[in-house]
Automatic annotation (TrEMBL):
It comes from the Eukaryota. Pfam families: Aminotran_3 (PF00202). It comes from Calidris pygmaea (Spoon-billed sandpiper). Belongs to the class-III pyridoxal-phosphate-dependent aminotransferase family. Keywords: Lyase, Pyridoxal phosphate. This is 5-phosphohydroxy-L-lysine phospho-lyase. Its cofactor is pyridoxal 5'-phosphate. One of its GO terms (molecular function) is transaminase activity. SUPFAM superfamilies: PLP-dependent transferases (SSF53383). The keyword Lyase applies. One of its GO terms (cellular component) is mitochondrion. InterPro entries: Aminotrans_3 (IPR005814), Aminotrans_3_PPA_site (IPR049704), PyrdxlP-dep_Trfase (IPR015424), PyrdxlP-dep_Trfase_major (IPR015421), PyrdxlP-dep_Trfase_small (IPR015422).
Length: 416
């Protein structure tokens, strides 16, 4: 019955093309719907009872990760995963403090609002156990593309934070970052930055937690996990997964090392989660991995992402409001600026553009502290035709905006 109610393929594809990033392989994918339906007809139960799906799924996920990340905990949301990652880090290190990147968002639980500058800056502020490091943004950050060694410079910022924390008698449990800071402005940290940060953090007795909730599962094209863009020599101590993992079904995961899991288990307090890792969720997780493989979505992300980047870079030459186009696979940011010299965020213009795009039935949002970075993170079935359609529409709208600006007196929204 469920399958019959699925929209016909044409409509499904249309929906897929406009669905949010958590629907990684597209709305109502028949394989995912079928996997959920079949398992629902058989059995669903809590994870206190062993089920092959859970073991099979952990095994399949482990094949995508470096060997040392071999223990898996299943949960229902990205927030739950990050909260557990925090507990694991603290239990293992016996330290409390966390270093995060500026403007990060890691989830809606109390513990995660505390480590999300994007949220806590508008609430009660920064807790004494939280330390904020600058975003390794080589376009508008502290150290830019012309810096001779931005990797070391940004990593040294973390080193300084650790030294300052130690002077106050504080101890670092974790460095917690998205592998590609999304809310922070679709940033691609320079390769080698994580390795250097991990070195400083490990020396301080802390662990490295990579939040792959937005950026994992083949989206970056070249690799299955975004942290792998840093180089083969980098392996986080904990990886958290969510959003695309279940293609819209509430599922999340924490992967970690044996040592960290053993320290967690040593408390004698078992990890139990009623719905996390239930047989239906795991059937869906397995089906998502199958679809990514069967439909070659990782290679597709590279091909379509490169094509989209090329089109967007052509727009950069044409429209001076586009200051930077950066990305990997189907994770792309377009940084809109008011002026080349200062790279002042074109916040109002970005807002205006996404509103006009919505009128053309294209949903795009903005990110970054200046809310001026157009965020491209479509479902991975997004194709070249879609890319062309979106970029042509952006071109048309930017041309209209420029014409309006020329014909009007300069106003605050027409300053480019
Ligand atoms: C990077 C990142 N981490 C964690 C979360 C929290 O995930 P959830 O909303 O599934 O709890 C989000 C959600 O937007 C996110 O973007």
């Amino acid at each position: 019955k469920l399958l019959c109610e699925c929209p016909p393929r044409g409509i499904r594809e249309e929906l897929s093309n406009h669905s949010p990033r958590s629907l990684a392989v597209g709305h109502c994918h028949p394989d995912i719907v079928k996997a959920a339906h079949e398992q629902n007809q058989l059995l669903n139960t809590n994870s206190r009872y062993l089920h092959d799906n859970l073991v099979d799924y952990a095994e399949r996920l482990s094949k995508t990760l470096p060997e040392k990340l071999c223990i898996f905990y299943f949960l229902n949301s990205g927030s739950e995963a990050n909260d557990l990652a925090l507990r694991l880090a603290r239990q293992y290190t016996k330290h409390e403090d966390v270093i995060v990147l500026d403007h990060a968002y890691h989830g809606h639980l109390t513990s995660l609002i505390d480590i999300s500058p994007y949220k806590f800056r508008n609430l009660e502020g920064q807790k004494e156990w939280v330390h904020v490091a600058p975003v390794p943004d080589t376009y508008r950050g502290l150290y830019r593309e012309d810096h001779e060694d931005s990797v070391t410079a940004y990593a040294n910022e973390v080193k300084n934070i650790i030294e300052q924390a130690h002077k106050r008698g504080r101890k670092i449990a974790a460095f917690f970052a998205e592998s590609l800071p999304s809310v922070g402005g679709q940033i691609i940290p320079p390769a080698g930055y994580f390795q250097k940060v991990a070195e400083h953090v490990h020396k301080a007795g802390g662990v490295f937690i990579a939040d792959e909730i937005q950026v994992g599962f083949g989206r970056v094209g070249k690799h299955f996990w975004a942290f792998q863009l840093q180089g083969e020599d980098f392996v986080p101590d904990i990886v958290t997964m969510g959003k695309p993992i279940g293609n819209g079904h509430p599922l999340a995961c924490v992967a970690t090392t044996k040592e960290i899991a053993e320290a967690f288990a040593a408390t004698g307090v078992e990890y139990f989660n009623t719905f996390g890792g239930n047989p239906v969720s795991c059937a869906i997780g397995l089906a998502v991995l199958d679809v990514i493989e069967k439909e070659h979505l990782q290679a597709h992300a590279t091909e379509v992402g490169n094509f989209l980047m090329k089109l967007l870079k052509e727009q950069k030459i044409k429209h001076p409001i586009i200051g930077d186009v950066r990305g990997s696979g189907l994770f792309i940011g377009v940084d809109l600026i008011k002026d080349q010299a200062e790279r002042t965020p074109a916040t109002a213009e970005a807002e205006h553009l996404i509103t006009r795009l919505k009128e053309e039935y294209i949903l795009l949002s903005t990110d970054g502290p200046g809310r001026n970075v157009l965020k491209f993170k479509p479902p991975m079935c997004f194709n070249k035709e879609d890319a062309k359609f979106v970029v042509d529409t952006i071109d048309k709208l930017l041309t209209d905006i420029e014409k309006e600006c020329l014909s009007q007196e300069k106003t605050s929204t027409c300053s480019t």
